[in-house]
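Figure 2 data, in text form.
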Amino acid sequence: MYKKFTAFLAAFAMLSAAVTGCGPEGTTTTADKDPAQTEAVTEAEDTAETEEAPAAAEPVATEALEPVVADVTDRRDFIITLYPEYAPITCKNFEKLVNDGFYNGLTFHRIVDGFMAQGGDPNGNGTGGSKDTIKGEFTSNGVENKLSHTRGVISMARSSDPDSASSQFFICYDDSCKQLDGNYAAFGEVTDGMEVVDAFLAVPRDYNSMYEEAIPLTPVQIVKAEMIDPDEKGNPRVKFTMNEFVISSGKVAGEEAEVTEAEETAADEETAETELITEAEEEVTTESDASEE
């Protein structure tokens, strides 16, 4: 019973933190720490922001926060379809950043099991953004946006300022993100390749200032973000191509090279030992032949 209560408190705490700044770590601000907010805020500021942030209406059941379990794939690209009908300003800004090559080379710096993967920060730690901020297109900011934060949906990160979003975004892993509805600007969803986003979870991570196991120990990098042909309804689409952050065996990119090098070293040592044994056997054979003569 105690374990279940503790798990419930942990789940509630994580969701509350998300609601305070669920925009992938604020764009150019250091306020609210929601699923996407600035992590580089002091603990005192975090506390203040959490207190000021709207409380989640109902804590999501602990079961809903179980980590996504997915096979590690060799695929390295995924496609996001934008929905201007829900958030036209946000979609236009996102498309502009993609066309400008802004996201190329940036990373997903915050990856949380059962919650979301956040990226798009040029500083790589949740404190940065693009030069322009945009109006937050969500209900509590006076804009009707009916796109719910379900699994695969992409939304903008922001600080406590509702109009602070710029470039940081997050992709939902779980329907529990629906508690962010009305407070963050959802504007599209992953329509192809969600298994690639799931594979981010295979990368070992360290803890951040919000006590989330979220900071990748090896880069989960966007090699290229590019606009591709719209879908059949005319909705804009973006293709993200990622680096080799993890391989199909489940090993993190880079580990394979280290393992290969170690295996090669062991093989070389084994070959050397074999050669020594062979030489010793030849010497014994030669001595034996000589004694017989």
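Caption note: The first helix runs from residue 2 to 21.
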